[in-house]
Amino acid sequence: MSVTCFLPCRKGSERVPRKNIKPFGGNDFGLIEIKLKQLIASKQINEIVLSTNDDEILTYAQSLKNAKIRLHKRSEDLSASSTSTDRLVKHALDLIPDSHILWTHVTSPFINGEDYDYIIEEYYLCLSKGYDSLMTTSIIRSFLWDESGPINYDRVLEKWPRTQTLSPIHEVNSAIFLSHSKNYNSYNDRIGMKPKLHSLDKLKAFDIDWPEDFSIAECISQLSS
Q: How far apart are CA 128 and CA 16, in angstroms?
């Protein structure tokens, strides 16, 4: 089965300027360098579709001269901070009309080629069990409340249960979405109607969104190198 990676990577991060390509952990081209090398190393990914409006990223990707990479210069209309994910779903389908699509981000720097291969194999197994897609999550076992009170335990039964006994809540961490383009077409979504929730440990799930995330991730990268 063919798996195509969709890697959206827009220019102009508002929280961390040049976040996707600024030097990171000894890598001159930062997160995009790390992620492309990880994706190239994957044996299960046949093609990497990099969609970006950033000329600096396009130049770097071209310099790799790797046959797995297909570059797409994304229009500015699809590259604003206000651009909805729903519009990007349609964009991904336009670029990848017939394939299993692995949607990932450069902001998950600790998921490597072996991880992608393992999760793709899990995805194939899930399809044989009746699931139609897979997405990665982080399991939360904490005291979760909203304005009405606790949402994952009953204080009538026990006011402060042990956290190990709390019902787990899955937080979508946006590291990986795996689904066939047919689901994109049918549901205008990057998952289907019955996704398998594949939990990641805290390190693999780490996502760089804020300036402090970038600094923490660099520290983790240096400690693990």
A: 41
Q: Can you give the pTM of this predicted structure? A: 0.94
- CB-side neighbour CA atoms (13 Å) of 67: 1
Q: Which tokens in the block code for residue 163?
A: 């956290």
Contact 89, 189 (CB under 8 A): yes
pLDDT of 225 above 70: no
Instruction: List strand residue ranges (DSSP E) for the chain, in order.
Output: 3-8, 47-52, 69-73, 100-104, 133-140, 145-146, 149-150, 169-180, 195-199
Residue 19 has pLDDT above 70, yes or no: yes
Helix ranges, 45-84 (H): 55-64
Report yes or no: 41 and 112 within 8 Å, Cβ to Cβ.
yes
Residue 172, CA distances (Å) to 18, 24, 91 in order = 25, 25, 21
